[in-house]
Structure formats: structure tokens, C-alpha cells
Amino acid sequence: MPTSAELFAKARTLIPGGVNSPVRACKSVGRDPLFIARAAGSKLFTVDGDELVDFVMSWGPMLLGHAHPGVTETARTAMLKGASYGAPCPAEVAMAEAVVAAVPGIEMVRMVNSGTEATMSALRLARGVTGKSAVVKFEGCYHGHGDAFLAAAGSGVATFGIPGTPGVPEDTVRHTLTAPYNDLDAVAALFEASGDIAAVIVEPVAGNMGLVLPAPGFLEGLRDLTAKHGALLIFDEVITGFRVAYGGAQSVFGIDPDLTCLGKIIGGGFPVGAYGGKRRFMQRISPEGDIYQAGTLSGNPVAMAAGLATLLALSKADYAGLAARTQSFAIALADILRAKGLPVTLNHIASILTLFFTDQPVTDFASAKTSDSALYARFYGHMRAHGVNLAPSGFECAFTSFAHTDADLDKTLAAARSFAG
Ligand SMILES: *Cc1c(COP(=O)(O)O)cnc(C)c1O
Q1: Which CATH class is domain 4-63+318-417?
Q2: Which helix (H) or strand (E) covers residue 334, if one does?
Q3: Which of 67, 146, 267, 382 has its CA at 20 to 30 Å from residue 168's CA atom?
Q4: Tens of pLDDT, residues 51-70
């Protein structure tokens, strides 16, 4: 098999940057990507013959571990019956039923093919329902690569107040208002200044500037402000859905959003997203209502089968146990690095953690950016050389899974102990 270096050299002549999604290129840590031959449980196996304990887990989806036997077998069985029909299939109904049962704020749901599609569709619905145009998003939050969401979009796109990328018209960006995460006063000021806000979209636990938790009262305040001003509250639970709890962050924090976006875990590794919410809003979606949204492969039978198998397994999983194991691991890791005199701030919830290389508490994008990226790049390189795959950016989360063993976590701590700083 060609090596990672050979594959990457060839890929760069054929695919922009050699990758099909930018962060995989490992540019921000000054490395080249590893090419993966296969994955199982908590492990990645590279084409170069190396084995790594994985804390990226496909950027979140693989909460049950890679190549989970139940999910794999269900997908295989489904595939033998045809990969796509372009007509309804039973698994779509079962999937919708499982999602509605799991997520408190979802009374009706529409399947799409990615998190990006879910957030774009949810915003269109919010605009259609309210007859307003603007959206409030938070600095450092990422909602996929839709035009409306690329301003101040976290680790991938980090420019403040201007379009996040060439190719997004000024006209579109005009309708995107940004506020610092955890800053209710800033949101209130935007509502005072503009009568045209259709929605506030938020990651109820932010995972795209590294992990940042909502301050007490922040999500409640967003619920009150949006209700008062006739805007919809959209929870982007693409990371947090089925991860911080089976019912998502909304079930943990007790907030009732109007719309919820899902992705990542819901597909069990297949390309699936979903958006759902209050029946009176979702009934506005075509063909029941007048707001158009469609997808040739949406509700794909193989993806639905894999997603459903994932949700069934997760509905019986020990989330509290995984959260407790992850917490002790995260604290041990932080202690090891602090003992070397390194500045470490640990943010943790459930099976998600980020170690920021800073002395300050990290509560928003500005404080996240005080983290020492050069130090993170060295840490990343050291851990990778010792068989541990961390996210190739200091502004990302580490994800544990139900497949991570004590031996995996001990191996990771041992690797950190030998880091020179
Ligand atoms: C990953 C992510 C998205 C985009 O999902 P894709 O499937 O990559 O399009 C949207 N929102 C959040 C919070 C995400 O983490």
C-alpha cells in the first residue's frame, strides 16, 4: 500500500489541498495528514502500519466506536436490499420516531445529508415563518459552510465582522449579526438595533472553538430574548445531540428551542443530518407547507438503518459512566501537563474535553484564542508520534467513545508524561 506521504503528494495534484474537508490537512499543526486504512473501536490503523488511539472519532460521530459490530451488520443487511429508492422506506419512519422520542424539542423532523444542510434548512424555515431576514450567531460557533454562517465561524474560518470567505456576497453577510458567546447583553443590543431578526442560532455547548460551556443563565436568556422579540431559537446540536446526553444538550439544560439541528452521531458514520422542532413550524416545510426543501438521497435506507442501529445502542448506553471516566482522564491529563509548568485550562462535559494551553478561563472565542497554538502543535506532534490521534488544531474538542478502554486512556496519559513541553 502507498504511504501517507505518497498518497498525500498524489492527492494534492487532484483534490484542493489534498483533502475533502480542510481541517484534515493538519496545516494548523504544521503536519501532513495520516491516511487511514481501517478503524475499529477506539483505534485508527494508518496505511503506514501505525495504530493510534483516536480522540477525533470522525469529529464526533463515532460515539459507539469505529466499526461497531451492530451498526456495521445492520448497514450491510440494508445495503443488500438496495442503496437508494427515491421513494419512502420503513426505516425513515422508525428513525423519525426515534428522534422525536429522544429530543424533547422535536415534534416533527426532516432528514437531510449533512449538518450544513440541516442548519441552512432550519434558517430558511425560521426566515419563512417570521418573514424576517437576519440571523444572530456567536463568534467561534460553527454551523457548517452555508453562506449565512461563515462570519466569525470558529476554528475553520475566524474573521470577525466580514464575510468568512470570498464567494459570500456582502448582501448575504449583511443579514448575519454576531455576538460573543455567553454575552446576553450583546444579543439584547442586537435585538434593540434590528427589528429584522428571524433567528438566533447557537451551539448550546460550543464545540468548534474548543469546548466552551454555556454560562448559567445564557441559554435561558436566549430563550427569553427570542420569545420576546418574535425570533426563533435554533439549537445547533450537530455535536451535542446524542452526545452530552441521549436527548442532547436541551435535555441537560432544560431549554425548549423552536428548532434543533442534528448531524454527526445521528448517521452512525454515514452522511446524515436532520432538523426538527415545533410541529407548527415544521408543517410549513414542503410538501405540507410552502417552504421548499428537498434531497435526492435524504432518508437513504442504508444511512437510516445505520443511524437507527446507532440510536438504539445509545438509548441503552451508560452515558453517566462514560462522563465520569472521561472526567477523571481529563483531570489526570491536565495535571500531568500542569506539573510540567504548562498553562492548562480544562473544559469538560460528558464525553467531550478540550485542554487549552492558557491560564485564563475559556468562556468565549476571545479567551479561547489566548491558547498557545505553537505549544499545541508540539503537543499534537508528540502525541501522534506516541500512538495518540488528537484533533489537528488546538481549537477543537477531544471526543471519547464507549469503545475507549482504560488501557487506551492509560496509554494516552503515559504519552503525555513524556512530553517535554
Ligand atoms: C460539524 C458541524 C456542522 C456541520 O456539519 P457537516 O456534516 O460537516 O456539514 C454544523 N454544526 C456544528 C455544531 C458542527 O459541529
Answers
A1: alpha beta
A2: helix 319-338
A3: 267
A4: 999 999 999 999 999 999 99
